[in-house]
Write a structure and sequence with these properties.
The chain is an alpha/beta fold. The chain has helices at 49-55, 84-90, 102-105, 112-123, 130-140, 146-149, 159-171, 189-206, 241-246, 251-258, 275-278, and strands at residues 7-17, 22-33, 38-42, 65-74, 77-78, 95-98, 177-181, 209-214, 226-231, 234-240. 33% of the residues lie in helices and 24% in strands. Helix 8 links the parallel strand 7 (177-181) and strand 8. Helix 4 (112-123) crosses helix 5 (130-140) and helix 5 packs across helix 7 (159-171). It is found in: Cell inner membrane. It is a peripheral membrane protein.
């Protein structure tokens, strides 16, 4: 049995303070993830998904972010009380990230080789053959002829290939948890499927835990073991993915699933979510 306490979030609440207001971004959520497991966090923009993901390694700038309450336990240690030096040891080594816009995450003036090599040198000082290691991870994520791509710049790659490079960079640090924050949003449908298939294959190959942050219920089936549905900073539904998809309990979960386009469906107006009607259900 995998260890369910590998990463545990307990009653986490995060506010953002401005000169004019305090915004409650995350409102007392609790989650856990085991080694080798994939957890999907699903919700619309502004629901608190990305804030939760960034909080795992305290990447939110403080201020304006304030960790109002709760704990983030990584192997039993509370991330929220770690000193800066200890935090640096878990960023990349323990927990790595890929984001939704690879073109803005990659530095346009450095080659692919330089950017992945920098991550390896920083987090794995024992590696001697840097180029060999870069090529290995580019090959692992499905980059064809990785030796020829070493000296390419980001603008020479398609959006799908840029995202594969970001995945390779994250994996090169050998993290125990990969946080994939909307990794397919900026890509067309065909490339989206390729990236999701890639994550599914990597999960099986390297036995790495994944947190998939997305607004799209349509991409989590077959990849995520469990799903947490977030609405306005709260988790409104939490359970095994196949159970939630087959029999959603919360009105917001039902509304999100109804928004998924169905192949072969007759033409009709797109389903929208009535937020005012949902307020009473939260």
């Amino acid at each position: 049995m995998p260890d369910p306490t590998f990463l545990e979030i307990k009653n986490l609440a995060i506010d953002f303070v401005t000169e004019t207001a305090t915004v409650e971004a995350v409102k007392g959520i609790s989650l856990s993830i085991a080694r080798g497991e994939t957890l999907a966090i699903v919700g619309e923009s502004g629901s608190g998904k990305s804030v939760t993901g960034l909080a795992l390694t305290r990447l939110l700038p403080e201020p304006p972010a304030i960790y109002k309450s709760g704990e983030i336990l990584l192997d039993g240690k509370n991330v929220l009380t770690m000193p800066p030096r200890e935090l640096r040891t878990i960023r990349g080594n323990k927990i790595a990230y890929i984001f939704q816009e690879p073109s803005t995450s990659l530095n346009p003036v450095f080659t692919i080789r330089n950017q992945i090599a920098e991550a390896i040198k920083l987090h794995r000082t024992d590696v001697r053959d840097i180029d060999g290691e870069v090529i290995k991870y580019l090959d692992m994520v499905g980059i064809v002829d990785p030796e020829k791509r070493l000296h390419d710049y980001p603008h020479q790659l398609s959006g799908g290939m840029q995202q594969r490079v970001m995945i390779a960079m994250a994996l090169s640090c050998r993290p125990e948890l990969l946080v994939a924050d909307e990794p397919t949003t900026a890509l067309d449908v065909t490339i989206q499927k390729q990236i999701i298939d890639q994550l599914r294959e990597l999960k099986q190959r390297v036995q790495m835990a994944i947190i998939l942050i997305t607004h799209n219920f349509g991409i989590i089936g077959g990849l995520a073991d469990r799903v947490a549905v977030m609405f306005r900073g709260k988790i409104v539904e939490y359970g095994e993915t196949h159970t939630v998809l087959a029999n959603p309990q919360h009105p917001y979960t039902k509304a999100l699933i109804q928004c998924i386009p169905q192949p072969g469906q007759k033409r009709h107006r797109l389903t929208t979510i009535d937020h005012a009607a949902l307020e009473a259900a939260v």
